[in-house]
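Quick log. Single chain, no ligands specified.
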Amino acid sequence: MRASHGLSLALIVVAALMAGAVSQRFSISADWTAGNRNSLSPASRQVLDALDAGPVSFTAYIYPGPRRAEVAERLERYTRASSQVHLDFVDPARDPQQVRALGIGDKGAVQIRYQGRSQTVTDFSEKSVTNALQKLSVAKNQWVVFLSGHGERSPAEESNGGYSELAAALDAQGMATRSLNIAEAAAIPDNAALVVVASPQRSLLPGEVRMLRDYVERGGALLWADDPGPRYGLEPLARDLGLSWLPGTVIYPDFRELGTGHPAIALVANYPNTPITENLTQIGLFPYAGALARLDNAAAKGWKAETFLRSSTRSWLETGPIDGQQSLTFQPDQGDIRGPLDMGIALTRAVQTDAGRFAQRVAVIADSDFMTNGHLERLGNRPLALALFQWLAFRDAQIAVDVAKAPDTRLQLSPAQIRGFWWVYVLILPLGLIGFGLLRWQRRRRR
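-> predicted structure:
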């Protein structure tokens, strides 16, 4: 018996030591929370995978205590996801000069370093940290220049028709925005990674059109988002790109069944398989969109055109008036064109310059409304817009990277549900417990 007990004890000790050794070398974790809140999202992992040129260091200036444990829990998701990420904690009281230099307050901050560049974050949510990593992924700020001076959509405009929310989303991903009146500047700056022409409402001067055409001819990246109507002097630029706008507005006949509210609000559920749209799964919503046609001169200028946005087969291009009409019908004898219709076309070509040969990218989309403040957050418009800008900026590894909010961070209840909870937890449950207690009390007294 003593030998058996001794052998059992020895085996237990050996098993415990072996389990401890294995736990030091191997790690297994599982996240069963709704929305995988304790794990990195696919978008964040995609950003980490793109940072393959060196280590990423997280230096957390947090005072010892519960706050440090909370920050460690959030940031360790990144260290578990990539061996390139290293996390260190520093007591702000031990390095006051660095704390003052970084402007760190009582709640602390995290300095993220990569390839000699740094970003400081005070919000330790995944969205903020991943956005900082995206900014560090490029060696310098990529300026997105929005043409101004002719009534275009403005990145500073905060109304429903402005682009301020789009500008904020681009800035979070490391692409700074600015407006440019080329009539005043007399040139497009060399540090412009991308020029955006967003629905001008007045004619451009011939000199401005010439500067835009020269910019494209030299290999500059361009996003041209425009709506049905006149081109305000930009027809030569469209011919250079081998494209033209078809007259009319795209009509979606199933607007009543789907609740879009107007036949001129087109829905796109299936995207062509292109580098811009390959990761997009949400429906896009495009108010008062037009359609594009390809010209025969596109190939002659070296452009390779690829449709990345196409309307459904049930749609058509309405050439007549649509204001106030809810019962439009397809009339081919009146010039209407049956879908599917090209609404967005991506252009690529090789450009030879004195510095060498490089690729050029241009995107033209026959709708500027889907990126406005009033529509950017609707359905899948935001992922499409960000993917479009990432592709034009040659950030292919981060296309469609947009960290979404966790789905279970807030509980939203209707007034009827709140009343139901009140009846259950304020009246029914307390009264039921009191009644059960009285019943048990009476039974015990009878005994």
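The two ends are 52 Å apart (CA to CA).
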